[in-house]
Write a structure and sequence with these properties.
Blueprint (H helix, E strand, L loop, with lengths): L2 H15 L3 H8 L3 H8 L7 H11 L3 H6 L17 H25 L2 E15 L6 E12 L4
Antiparallel strand pairs: 1-2
Length: 147
């Protein structure tokens, strides 16, 4: 057994029971974005969170322990994503990455946006031309230090 096995079990139970990530997040007490990432194997849960997830998805004590192991982050199976939705994100970064970098540096100086001290919010935005996906990424700015 490993973390990937637990992730697969979570996904299988989610599909078979029609569970929604927002409902899981509500029970865990965290955002749907973070909770989903955790259930998909990208975040580490504490004991209390793992027990809640375990109850929802029928996980054994051993499987709950795997939820508490620091995961190998980055879940894409190929360097260039092949899933169409994930590829669009790759495309956004390919097209707008230098613009994002330039504007962040202009506003904040030399540094990076943290993906550790970070939050994300995904919402549906009604639009007469077709609903839109509204994604807000918020990361702490971390300036490079001189030494």
């Amino acid at each position: 057994m490993n973390r990937n096995d637990v992730t697969e079990k979570i996904i299988t139970v989610k599909v078979s029971k029609g569970i929604q990530w927002a409902d899981v997040a509500k029970k865990v007490g965290l955002s749907k974005e973070w909770t989903t990432a955790a259930c998909l194997g990208q975040m580490t849960l504490d004991d209390k969170q793992a027990k809640v997830i375990g109850k929802i998805f029928g996980l054994t004590a051993e499987e709950q322990k795997w939820l508490q192991v620091v995961p190998y982050k980055g879940s894409l199976p190929t360097p260039v994503p092949t899933d169409p939705l994930i590829y669009r994100w790759y495309e956004v970064v390919s097209v707008y990455g230098t613009t994002i970098k330039e504007l962040i540096h202009e506003e904040f100086g030399d540094g990076i946006m943290s993906a550790i001290d970070f939050s994300m919010d995904i919402q549906r935005q009604a639009d007469p031309k077709g609903d839109r996906v509204n994604v807000v990424l918020s990361g702490k700015f971390l300036p490079y230090k001189t030494y």
